[in-house]
Specification:
Layout lengths: L14 E5 L4 H12 L3 E6 L2 H14 L4 E6 L5 H14 L5 E4 L14 H29 L2 E6 L2 H5 L5 H20 L7 E8 L12 H9 L9 H12 L10 E4 L6
Parallel strand pairs: 1-2, 1-4, 2-3, 4-5, 5-6, 6-7
Helix pairs in contact: 1-8, 3-4, 4-6
Length: about 260
């Protein structure tokens, strides 16, 4: 049977934490997991956008179980506080989706320390600092699924994105390491990454049409991705359908050739 969102087992007994769930890939992932019955903890920095995102999810799934937690991945204090709140409020954390990230693009010769440090701090250190609190908790409870959003840029590199490429490549290294570490002593925590290609989130909606067509032509399928296609991949990796998959980087990029 072909995989569809409808074919995924019920997630009603699961608690999922999604960072950056107030838009883009994070919001779509929250939507599909809420629709499958999961209790979704939306860990976000912008509470105003999060409130709007929550309303968006409830419009699609009126009985969705949702919770907002304030989280700034650029602040270790915020990460510790958010993790403490989440762990105190829930007996188990079944799924963690490390989705939140930022961009500060510039050519290497022009990239400032602030641009470099900001992206590495949020996109790599923030993911590490949150997961090193939640991952061992999953290990102690005897299972869980961690999914981190990398990027095609982390695999192939990209002009003007040395900071972003370094962070997303680092996510891949963390994924493979955590898959080993969190499986120790019967931990049974699965850890995987998704490497999306160019996907039609709000960021790409501001890109000129000729560039969008160029990006689409760089894929085997001749088109750009849609956020729900990345969310479906995350849903699959989170589910028991992927129970024997760990330490893997799933490319969801239409066969991109950079």
């Amino acid at each position: 049977m072909a995989f569809t969102v409808e074919s995924v087992p019920d997630l009603s007994a699961k608690t999922v934490v999604i960072t950056g769930a107030n838009g883009g890939l994070g919001l779509e992932t929250a939507k599909v997991m809420a629709a499958k019955g999961a209790h979704v903890v939306m860990a976000v920095r912008n509470q105003e956008k999060a409130t709007a995102a929550r309303a968006d999810i409830l419009a699609a799934t009126p009985d969705a179980s949702l919770e907002l937690v304030e989280l700034d991945l650029g602040s270790q204090g915020s990460i510790r506080a958010a993790a403490a709140q989440i762990l105190a409020d829930h007996d188990t954390i079944d799924i963690l989706v490390n989705n939140a990230g930022i961009t500060r693009d510039a050519m290497t010769r022009k990239m400032t320390d602030e641009q470099w440090n900001a992206v590495l701090n949020v996109n790599l250190s923030g993911v590490f600092n949150l997961t090193r609190l939640i991952g061992p908790y999953m290990q102690q409870q005897g299972g869980g699924s961690i999914i981190s959003i990398s990027s095609v840029v982390g695999v192939f590199g990209n002009i003007g994105q040395a900071n972003y490429a370094a962070a997303k490549a680092g996510i891949i290294g963390l994924t493979k390491t955590w898959a080993k570490e969190f499986a120790l002593k019967g931990g049974n925590v699965r850890v995987n990454a998704i490497a999306p290609g160019y996907t039609m989130t709000d960021i790409l909606k501001t890109v000129p049409q000729d560039l969008l067509e160029k990006f689409a032509s760089m894929t085997m399928l001749g088109r750009l991705g849609q956020p729900e296609e990345i969310a479906s991949a995350a849903l699959f990796l989170a589910s028991d359908e992927a129970s024997y998959i760990t330490g893997h980087v799933l490319s969801v990029d239409g066969g991109m050739r950079l």
